[in-house]
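Write out this protein's structure.
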Amino acid sequence: MDNFSDLHDDTRIAWLVAGDERLGVAQAVRGLVSAVRPLGVEPTVISLADGPFTQSMRGLGFAVEVLNVAPLPTLRGRLPNKMWLALQVWNAARSVRPQLAGALRASRAKAVHVLWTNLMSPTAMAAHDTGIPCFWEMPNVMGRYPLGINRRILQHTLRRWNVMPLANSSYTAATLGNHPVKPIVLYPGADAQRFDPGRKDFITRGQLGIPADAIVLGIFGRIRPAKGQALILEAMAQLPSAYTNAHLLLLGGPTESEYADELRLLAKRLGVMERLHLYGNVPDPERYYHLVDMAINARIDPEPFGLSVVEAMMMGKPVLVHALGGPAETVLDRETGWHVQEPTVEGFKAGLLRALGEREKWEVMGAAGRKRALEYFSLSRQAKEYVSIVRGRLPCTGAQ
């Protein structure tokens, strides 16, 4: 347990985490926690267990307290299974509630922030016990269940424990609904200093074995069926002969999986094996955007937000997106990229042809995308809006 007594007297916000957060989630939490510090906020971290994420937060100089409690069940599967798991979460929440409340008091936090849905209930209860507001950052859209039962249960919890939900897009907010608690839309942000097209340390095409004259399509994210990589691969293979120099770069993992093997077999069957480039997770994706002509988000189901879309925009790249969820809000069709209405091979092929037909506009569209990202989707803007929201719900805000 780290000592919270050395923290200064600015607004303190405690982040409750599981401890094993990774990839995009870990990046997003670290980004916001670091960005609020210069705004007079002192973040602390309370974790259910020790893990790589909590260790990384210590390395960045944040106070961390580990509760050493068992992980709470994750709500997944079909509705009956989720209902059973929700009951287990509720029982676990009551068990961990006193310990969490004690940690909040020890941290002297004036608000608490939670991301994971299964951690929201115990966090909200503990916040209620200590008399501080609780903010729930909605990580995903709400699934559709009969009579909206999941939405009704969550809305009841939000009202009962006075939790403020922060939705990562208008689409995500709409899936929760506005009654009795109306969520606030707070777009996640990308780090403008990190994702800077003027940087000099880019990875080159030669380093990855990609021809200099290729048209490179890039999908940056986890390699799994829902991300739509197979659809883009098939759509690329069906392009007219004038575009046989189109290549697909997949940056993310796992590259050793059943689905990754399926992609390789598909590329071989389509005769485009030499034009498919699979790379695993890298700590510095910003260094790879220089070799990409067009970024793509082909997620088949609704994308709650799509941080990689904003990162690509910030790097000055036009983005082709399935226009469902967050990407429909971040990308302006034919201004900063292109919308595809149907997540099918035919739909993406049509989208690619439309984008390729406007090649002379790519640079202008990329510049417009960067301008839009800096204005609406930067990490600094997110942090300012977040701090304003939190301080607006604190008692005696004039003292802050």
